[in-house]
Amino acid sequence: MNISRKEVLENLIEFRRPLKEIGDMLAEHPWDSEVKLVILTPDHVINVLDRFIGGELTTSEIDQWANMIKFRDDIGFRGALSNQTKQAIWELANPDLTHPFSKERADKIRGALLFV
Known about the structure:
By secondary structure, the protein is mainly alpha-helical.
């Protein structure tokens, strides 16, 4: 499958495909980037958290999704909530270092991204 790096990243931040498939597609592209190809917004995180709260995604998938995002040079954060969005990704990727992940925790993170 020949899909652009930007399209793969859009699939990742919107969690449109299985993470294994996204990971395989990302492996076809370089890791480093001088430019931000996509911007992760609070809405992206909120939508993924809503899917978790609704039972569509597992804690393992949330952890893997956040870990696939957290250190990428080609994913940017912008806007008034950029720090909260970065913090949410960090927390979701590191539940052993922050807070155990649960539906209650997801709802709290979601609320922090909605009401700042």
